[in-house]
Amino acid sequence: MNPQDKMSLSDSLMLVIRRDWLLAMRRRADVLTTLVFFVMVVSLFPLSMEPDPNVLRKIAPGVVWVAALLASMLSLGRLFSADHADGTLEQMMLAPQPLALLVFGKIVAHWMLSGLPLVLLAPVLGLQFGVPTEGLWVLVAGLLLGTPMLSAIGAIGAALTLGLRGGGVLVSLLVLPLCIPVLIFGAGAVDAVLAAKSAAPNLALLGAALVVSLAAAPWVAAQALRISME
Amino acid sequence: MAINWFKYSAPSTFYGLAGKIAPWCAGISAVLFAAGLYIGLVVAPTDATQGESYRIFFIHVPTAILSMFLYLVMAGYAAIGLIFNTRLSAMMATALAPTGALFTFIALWTGALWGKPTWGTWWVWDARLTSELILLFLYIGFMALHSSIDDPRRADRAAALLAIVGSVNVPIIYYSVRWWNSLHQGPTFEVGRVAVYDDTMRQAFLLMLFACWLYAAAVVLWRVRSIILERERSTQWVAELKEIRA
Amino acid sequence: MSEFFDMGGRGLYVWGSYGVVLLVFIIEIWQVRHKRKMILQQLRSMRELGDEE
């Protein structure tokens, strides 16, 4: 297989996504671990307090969002480290395609493997907390807009800490503060619906932030990779 | 006469320059502190609504302003270092981070001590204090990343990129926190808000602001001198310095 | 004078603020001086080693 020379940009993007997807499918346990972690963290909250339905409904959006934030941090370490170890990353940097595009592909793959499953599972957890149906829809919509951002911002952190000892904790330290706006708007959207207000402003802000971060983050992460690989 | 600024971007020249400027900054800062503290703590009248505890304003607000300002200066130096590949800028960014973090800590500490007597609570989730807390996380992230990379060149560049991303995020974080705060009908007051109605209050505030600024300048210049020596230890000009020959 | 330190019953908070600022400044200045002393010492010993060679 040697089609690099004539490959269009969208082809190479699809190739990166497909490759990461296949690699992850061979190690499904990794994906499942993240998912189980997410469910577990969310389930710990009712156990740590008196499970008053009113209180649970109130804290549900925040709890689900914080758990999603932590779960997506878990898998960030794997984003570039395997490719770094086997030399694929170096090949990617030498490839004729812009590195930012390939990084974008890796972000999309990371989101499909660690973000999307959380989005699909979130309504179930919302039901556990007694969130009404309209709240569940907004929760899913918010997560759908927000989790790609977590992967995109996370990619910058993962690229900066590539190959460092204690990289896992360091990534969280760098990335979590930058994700606070995502948390605020995402959880705020559900809060607004539960308070019988419109979730539209929160979701609109999330959408705008998503567009900006998807445009900028791959490029920044590519710069970070160049710095780390020198 | 045009001053050749590039001359001072060489660590060897800047080392001497910083050594000459820093004592002046420190001296003027001490004088301004003395004057500011005297006016702020003795001369300025008692606040009608908040009593004497409003006097924390004279240290809380200047340190809070400087904590944000220093982050932007740090990110600016980091950006210059990344774009023009100047070693000195990266060293300045590294030297600024600890002082910025300490100012952030002071702003948080004095904010808590102000909140308690005035509103009966040590911590309020108001937009300003919350943003200060997040700013502290950003400073800590910068220092943690820099110190966990052994190769100084990579450390400089990686931390610089993080500082730039952080500085783009600072306003977004601030406005998102404000938005969150207004939606939740949080406290109607804000820490750091005082009705400045008296000239002596304004004077004390400005004196303290410039005192803190010059203090930061002095400490950062002193710190960057050590960083320069550390990084340039194998060069000829360091070996010829009189403080090392002695 | 004691009235000044009492700060209308809020002395603990006002002096707690300014005291910690003083403490932080002292620690920072000490740390910067210490760092300079260490690096100068290190450079001097490096130089002596170089002279012997």
Largest inter-chain contact set: B-C, 37 and 28 residues
Helix percentage of chain B: over 70%
CATH level-1 class of chain B: Mainly Alpha
Share of residues in helices of chain C: over 70%
What is the subunit arrangement here?
Answer: heterotrimer
User: What's the tally of helices of chain C?
Assistant: 2
**Major sheet summary line of chain C:** none
User: How many β-strand runs of chain C?
Assistant: 0
Taking pLDDT < 50 over at least 5 consecutive residues as the criterion, the unreliable ranges of chain C are none
Strand content of chain B: under 5%
Strand content of chain C: under 5%
Average pLDDT value of chain C? 86
What CATH architecture of chain B would you give? Up-down Bundle
Nearest-angstrom radius of gyration of chain B? 20 Å
The structural class of chain B is mainly alpha
| CA radius of gyration of chain C | 22 Å
Report the uncertain regions of chain B: none
User: First CA to last CA of chain C: what distance?
Assistant: 65 Å
Number of domains of chain B: 1
Q: Between the first and last Cα atoms of chain B, what is the distance in angstroms?
A: 37 Å
Keywords summarizing the entry:
heterotrimer; A: 230 residues; mainly alpha; 83% helix; elongated; C: 2 helices
Describe this structure in words.
The complex is a heterotrimer of chains A (230), B (246) and C (53). Chain A has 230 residues and is an all-alpha fold. Helix content of chain A is 83%, strand content 0%. Chain A has one domain. Chain A is elongated and about 55 Å long. Chain A starts with 8 loop residues before the first helix and ends with a helix. In chain A, 48% of the residues are buried. With 246 residues, chain B is mostly helical. Chain B has a single domain, classed as Four Helix Bundle (Hemerythrin (Met), subunit A), CATH 1.20.120. Chain B has helices at residues 11-43, 57-84, 87-119, 127-148, 152-183, 199-231, 236-239, 242-245. Chain C has a domain at 22-53. Chain C is built from two helices and no strands. Chain C has helices at residues 2-6, 11-52. Classes of the chains: A mainly alpha (230), B mainly alpha (246), C mainly alpha (53). Chain B binds chain C through residues 37, 41-42, 46, 51-53, 55-56, 59-60, 63, 98-99, 102, 105-106, 109-110, 113-114, 116-117, 215, 219, 222-223, 225-226, 229-230, 233, 238-239, 243-245, and chain C through 4, 7-10, 13-14, 16-18, 20-21, 24-25, 28-29, 32-33, 35-36, 39-40, 42-44, 46-47, 50.
